[in-house]
């Protein structure tokens, strides 16, 4: 099942949903896939410096893991194509204009935004405004 590629359609259909809980990014230097499986990460990424794990904050705390920053996850419910052009840039730009940092993770079906735990409602408000603007322009 292929996702949507048309930018206007994507932006009008973002449907941001705040996921329960707080998340952190943990690094395992020299780590490889499979490391940290006991933390049940929701995402992993292998980098030259180590394996990054995205895990719920409570699991990180219980395991004594070190992390910088606490984030909330917002999932864009629109089924975006991995080949869509402009979605990530537009979303990041809208949030940047409001001073909201975001770490975007594109998965097969949806895009997931990790924003500071103090700003999720601000981010959702910005995305909702963006959706409304696109609908009005149509």
Automatic annotation (TrEMBL):
Protein name, entry field: ACT domain protein
One protein family per Pfam: ACT_3
Domain of life: Bacteria
Gene3D superfamilies in the cross-refs: VC0802-like
Positions of the CASTOR ACT domain: 72-129
Transmembrane region(s): none
Domain DUF2241, chain residue ranges per copy: 2-71
Protein source organism: Novipirellula herctigrandis
